[in-house]
């Protein structure tokens, strides 16, 4: 799987139960995931991107693991806007990679080093689903 070939498909049309801040996607495993992203620009010029993923059933209810905890993940990444532009990147590049991380997919610009492997694994909804099913 390459970063240019996502292993998810955005449902079109979106289900009527989808929350306004979520986009519902279906993974190649058939799991339904509600994905959301927030971007906040601070007065200092820093941009903070939060991406979250929530495993849902066909009715939009959040799946729970054996302990009753919701099957969700999130990742957050602060970045200076000036650093993005100096590297030829835009905020949308960071947003896309944050979404890729929570979906457990390869990234292009961020979260690519070996030092980020633990963060990627912890934030991956695929890994969270696997742990929930193994419990």
Give the total of beta strands: 5
Low-confidence stretches: none
Total domains, how many? 1
The proportion of strand residues reads: 25-35%
Task: Give Rg in angstroms.
Answer: 15 Å
- Helical segment count: 4
Distance between the termini: 27 Å
Structural class by helix and strand composition: alpha+beta
Global mean pLDDT? 92
Could you explain the architecture of this structure?
The chain is an alpha+beta fold and 135 residues long. The chain has one domain. It is 27% helix and 28% strand. The chain contains four helices and five strands. A hairpin with a 4-residue loop joins strand 3 and strand 4 (46-56). It is globular and about 45 Å long. The two termini are 27 Å apart.
Itemize the secondary structure elements and their pairings.
Elements (H helix, E strand, L loop, with lengths): L7 E3 L12 E5 L4 E10 L4 E11 L15 E9 H6 L4 H13 L13 H7 L1 H10 L1
Concise structural overview:
It is built from four helices and five strands, in the order βββββαααα. By secondary structure, it is α+β, with helices and mostly antiparallel strands.
